[in-house]
């Protein structure tokens, strides 16, 4: 008859056996991180990180139709001979630890128009835009906080001066200041799949608004993947090689500018007389929203320098001006740009491939 477990436990001549103690599991704020993997939104196969970006975008001639929404403002029909954008952006790692990464970004953007029609002489809104251009100077802070091997969250806060200012004296007013933010809480399921839920608060759809966001980054095999922050953008990715990547998808871009009119526009009532409780318009808020269906190619030129070439079709959803002088924020001009093809060329600096390989990082 065998010896029972109770008798075995009481046998003074037999040493007791214990499982080895489990090492303490550090949390995300203390402990030894050297042997620990942390989650993040990136997946294998995504393009290289960008440090400095210079981009130029151009559209060919297209038609524009502007309809006044209040009495006293005229309509406009003509063409835009030139619509171009220049942007210069830079990103600097301010803090880079396994459990916390902070990146500071700076940007300058300028959008230019040249109108073919009465705008250059007697249409006040477009005359201001054509002479000054629309500019944005922005700074932002991005915080990535890995929690453990699965969970992470990402937050971004951005402030910018956006409008038709020409000199530093124009920037003394707070009217040009714009703020936006986004936050996503995510899950890293494996090196090829990361997703998250959150919100975006900003001008993606022209006016300041809060809307939900779904981040979805997934690599299906050695060639194909998808990168999305829905509804703002969805992109399919094809990795032709380590130094050549193709993209196809759409983006929704929103811009919000303050336009200071040199000649005020009177608010006229149905009787033809100025409205007593409405100040003459001196400032307009311009809300621009567009959807781009795009094809993009990124190619490594040097170990630290990449090129991005992009082409597609732009659908303009709105280019509307609102009353910024009075408190009612009434729509003053409803404009529509015709759809048009566009093309852009971009150069950006990345961490050199040898440096990443030495650090054990795979692109």
From TrEMBL:
Write out the ranges of the annotated region (Disordered).
1-42
Q: Record's InterPro entries?
A: DUF6268 (IPR046235)
Q: Which domain of life is it from?
A: Bacteria
Residue spans of biased composition, Pro residues class: 17-26
Q: Name one Pfam family in it.
A: DUF6268
Q: For the DUF6268 domain, which residue ranges apply?
A: 144-260
Could you identify this protein by its name?
DUF6268 domain-containing protein
């Amino acid at each position: 008859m065998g010896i029972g477990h109770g008798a075995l436990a009481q046998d003074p001549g037999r040493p007791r056996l214990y499982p080895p103690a489990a090492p303490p599991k550090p949390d995300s704020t203390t402990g030894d991180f050297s042997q620990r993997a942390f989650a993040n939104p990136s997946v294998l196969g995504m393009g290289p990180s960008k440090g400095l970006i210079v981009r130029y975008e151009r559209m060919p001639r297209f038609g524009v139709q502007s309809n006044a929404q209040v009495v006293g403002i005229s309509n406009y029909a003509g063409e835009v001979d030139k619509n171009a954008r220049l942007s210069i952006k830079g990103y600097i790692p301010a803090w880079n630890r396994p459990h916390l990464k902070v990146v500071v970004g700076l940007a300058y953007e300028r959008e230019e128009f040249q109108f073919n029609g009465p705008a250059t002489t007697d249409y006040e809104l477009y005359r201001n835009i054509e002479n000054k251009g629309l500019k944005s100077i922005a700074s932002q802070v991005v915080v990535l906080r890995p929690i453990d091997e699965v969970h992470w969250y990402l937050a971004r806060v951005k402030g910018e001066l956006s409008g038709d200012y020409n000199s530093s004296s124009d920037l003394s007013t707070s009217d040009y200041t714009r703020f936006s933010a986004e936050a996503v809480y995510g899950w890293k399921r494996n090196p090829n799949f990361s997703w998250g839920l959150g919100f975006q608060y900003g001008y993606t759809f022209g006016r300041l608004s809060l809307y939900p966001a779904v981040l979805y980054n997934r690599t299906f095999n050695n060639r194909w993947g998808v990168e999305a922050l829905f509804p703002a953008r969805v992109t399919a990715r094809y990795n032709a090689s380590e130094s050549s990547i193709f993209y196809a998808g759409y983006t929704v871009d929103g811009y919000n500018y303050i336009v200071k009119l040199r000649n005020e526009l009177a608010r006229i009532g149905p009787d033809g007389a100025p409205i007593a409780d409405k100040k003459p318009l001196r400032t307009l808020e311009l809300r621009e929203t567009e959807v781009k269906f795009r094809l993009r190619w990124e190619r490594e030129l040097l170990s630290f320098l990449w090129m991005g070439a992009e082409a597609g079709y732009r659908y303009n959803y709105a280019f509307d001006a609102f009353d910024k002088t009075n408190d009612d924020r009434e729509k003053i001009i409803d404009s529509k740009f015709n759809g048009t093809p566009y093309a852009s060329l971009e150069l950006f600096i990345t961490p050199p491939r040898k440096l990443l390989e030495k650090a054990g990082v795979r692109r």
